[in-house]
Design a protein that fits this description.
This protein is α/β, with parallel strands linked by helices. It contains 17 helices and 16 strands. The strands form four sheets. It has an eight-stranded parallel β-barrel, surrounded by eight helices. Strands 11-12-13 form a three-stranded antiparallel sheet, with helices on one face. Strands 14-15-16 form a three-stranded antiparallel sheet. Helix 6 links the parallel strand 6 and strand 7. It starts with a strand and ends with a helix.
Length: 513
C-alpha cells in the first residue's frame, strides 16, 4: 500500500476558528499529542502574524520531536525570514509559503498579474530553500484558478526547489467528482511533478471536505491537510479522524495507509475540544458521543449478536474504552500519577499537586470517578497558566420568586477578596460579583454547559467566551456544582485574556528595542 502523509494544521488553520485562542502551553500540549498520534507534519502557526504566533511556533519547534514542524508564510521576504527564525530549532523544519492564484484573488486582493504572481512565488520558494530543504508551496484558492496557470506555476516552483505543492479548495466550493478530475489534470499537466508530493487542503463549506480529500487521494494526492475535529475557518477543514478512519476502514478499496496510531484518535479529539472550548457535536462521525451508540432495538439485537452487523469500526481502535472506576478517595498520589500516564498525561511537580488535590475533592463529591472525569479535570487544571485571579469559594442564594445573590471569594496576590452581587439568576449574580473584584471591562459573549459523564452526580463542564479589548477568549470550568463550574470558567477566561495581553505587550516592547 502507498503511504498518505497526514499534515495537521489544527494549531494554524484550526485556531482561526472564531473564539479559539490557545496559549503557548496549550499549543505545545496539542503538538506533543499530535506527535503521539503519529501525524507526519504539524503546522504550528503563522509566525509573522503576531508575536504570540511566533512564540508558539518556536516553542513547538524546540520541544516536539518526530513530525516535521511547519510554519506558514506569505511570499514576501519578511514573512519567510520570520518563519525561519521560529522554525530553525526544529529537527525537521518546513517553510510553507503561499500566494493566491485565482483570477478573483489576483485581481481584487493582490492587484497583480498572473506573471507577477508566478515570479513572486518562485522568488519565495528560492528564499525558503536557502534556509531549509523542505519547502511547501500553496496556491491559495487553487480550485477556482485556471488549471493551465496552476500547472505553469507549480512547474516553476518545483524547479525552484519546492518539495510539496499544495492544492487548496480554500472556500469549500468543489465536489468530489470535480476535485478528483482537477487533481488528475494537474498531475498530468506538470512535467516535473514526480519531484514533489501533491497535497490538498479542503474546506468544509458544503460539508464535502473529507469526500473531496479522498477523491484527491484517488487521483494522485499523497498528502492531506486536516484538523482535529475538523475545526477551522467558517465551516472548518477536512477532519483528521474521519479522513484517517475512512482510509483505514476502506483500505481494500483505497489501497493506502497512514502512520497514524488510531488508538490515540479519541484522546486527541478530547484534548483539542477541551482546550479550544469547541464542543464536539453528539453525531460527529468517529468521535461524537453517539458515534457507537445504538438506540434501535433491531440495531441493538444485531450488535449483541455480532458487532459488525451495525458497526464498521471498533471503538477500541480509536481509543474508546469503558468508563471503569480505577481510582477512589483512598488512592495515593503515585497511583494517580501512573493512571494519568496510562491516559496519555505526563504530569509532574506543582501541576500534579494541584490536579491530585482537585481529584480528592472530586472523590468526596462523586460516587464513581471515571476516566472521562479525570481527563476533564486534568485538562482543566494542567493548562490553566498563571492565575492572576484564583477561585476560592462561592455561596448562592436563589429561588423561583426571588432575586439571586452570589458571594464569590477570589485570591488576588495571596489575599482573599470577597464580593457579593444580586441579579436575576445565580450565574449572572456570580459573574457580576467577579467583575466587581476584577475591575476590568470583560463582556460575556457565550455560555455553554454540558455534563462530563452521565448520572445525578456528574461533573458539569462550562465553556464561556468573553470579550476583552476587542478579542475573544475562551474559558473552561468543571465541578459537580454547575454554579461553581460557571465561576471557574469565567475566571479561567479572564486569566487567559490578561496573561495573553500581558505577554503580547512584553514581546512587542522587547522586539521594538
Amino acid at each position: 500500500m502507498e503511504k498518505v502523509f497526514i499534515f495537521d494544521t489544527t494549531l494554524r488553520d484550526g485556531e482561526q476558528s472564531p473564539g479559539v485562542s490557545l496559549n503557548v502551553k496549550e499549543k505545545v500540549a496539542i503538538a506533543k499529542q499530535l506527535a503521539r498520534l503519529g501525524v507526519d507534519c504539524i503546522e504550528a502557526g503563522f509566525p509573522f502574524a503576531s508575536p504570540g504566533d511566533f512564540e508558539a511556533v518556536k516553542a513547538v519547534a524546540q520541544s516536539v520531536e518526530g513530525p516535521v514542524i511547519a510554519g506558514l508564510a506569505r511570499t514576501n521576504e519578511a514573512d519567510i525570514e520570520r518563519a525561519w527564525e521560529a522554525l530553525k530549532y526544529a529537527q525537521k523544519p518546513r517553510i510553507h509559503t503561499f500566494i493566491a492564484t485565482s483570477e478573483i484573488h489576483m485581481k481584487y486582493k493582490l492587484k497583480k498579474t498572473p506573471d507577477e504572481v508566478l515570479q513572486e512565488a518562485v522568488r519565495a520558494v528560492k528564499l525558503a530553500k536557502s534556509f531549509t530543504p523542505d519547502v511547501e508551496f500553496s496556491a491559495e484558492d487553487a480550485f477556482r484558478s485556471d488549471v493551465k496557470f496552476l500547472c505553469e506555476i507549480f512547474a516553476a516552483v518545483i524547479e525552484a526547489g519546492a518539495t510539496t505543492i499544495n492544492i487548496p479548495d480554500t472556500v469549500g466550493y468543489a465536489t468530489p467528482w470535480e476535485f478528483g478530475a482537477f487533481i488528475k489534470a494537474i498531475k498530468e499537466g506538470v512535467p516535473n511533478i514526480d519531484r514533489a508530493v501533491i497535497s490538498v487542503h479542503c474546506h468544509n463549506d458544503l460539508g464535502l471536505a473529507v469526500a473531496n480529500s479522498l477523491a484527491a487521494v484517488e487521483n494522485g494526492a499523497r498528502q492531506v491537510e486536516v484538523t482535529v475535529n475538523g475545526i477551522g475557518e467558517r465551516a472548518g477543514n477536512a477532519s483528521l479522524e474521519e479522513l484517517v478512519m475512512a482510509l483505514y476502514t476502506r483500505r481494500n478499496y483505497f489501497q493506502k495507509n497512514t502512520n497514524i496510531n488510531t488508538v490515540e484518535i479519541y484522546r486527541t479529539s478530547k484534548l483539542v475540544s477541551n482546550l479550544t472550548g469547541m464542543v464536539i457535536q453528539p453525531n460527529k462521525a468517529v468521535v461524537g458521543k453517539n458515534a457507537f451508540v445504538h438506540e434501535s432495538g433491531i440495531h441493538q439485537d444485531g450488535v449483541l449478536k455480532e458487532r459488525q452487523t451495525y458497526e464498521i469500526m471498533n471503538p477500541a481502535m480509536i481509543g474508546i474504552t469503558g468508563n471503569n472506576l480505577y481510582l477512589g478517595k483512598h488512592s495515593g498520589r503515585h497511583a494517580f500519577k501512573m493512571h494519568l500516564k496510562s491516559l496519555g498525561y505526563e504530569v509532574e511537580g506543582e501541576a500534579l499537586t494541584k490536579a491530585f488535590a482537585r481529584f480528592k475533592e472530586l472523590c468526596d463529591n462523586k460516587k464513581v470517578v471515571t476516566d472521562e472525569d479525570l481527563i476533564a479535570l486534568v485538562d482543566t487544571e494542567t493548562f490553566k497558566g498563571p492565575e492572576v485571579y484564583q477561585f476560592s469559594h462561592i455561596q448562592i442564594s436563589s429561588g423561583t420568586n426571588i432575586s439571586s445573590t452570589a458571594t464569590v471569594g477570589v485570591i488576588v496576590d495571596g489575599q482573599l477578596k470577597e464580593k457579593a452581587a444580586v441579579a436575576k439568576g445565580p450565574v449572572e449574580a456570580s459573574y457580576q460579583a467577579i467583575n466587581s473584584i476584577v475591575e476590568e471591562d470583560f463582556v460575556l459573549k457565550d455560555y455553554a454547559i454540558k455534563s462530563v459523564t452521565a448520572g445525578e452526580d456528574a461533573q458539569g463542564e462550562v465553556v464561556v467566551q468573553v470579550i476583552y479589548n476587542g478579542r475573544v477568549f475562551t474559558g473552561r470550568g468543571i465541578s459537580v456544582d454547575i454554579i461553581e463550574a460557571s465561576a471557574r470558567a469565567y475566571l479561567n477566561a479572564i486569566n487567559k485574556a490578561l496573561n495573553m495581553t500581558k505577554r503580547t505587550e512584553t514581546i512587542e516592547k522587547v522586539e521594538g528595542m
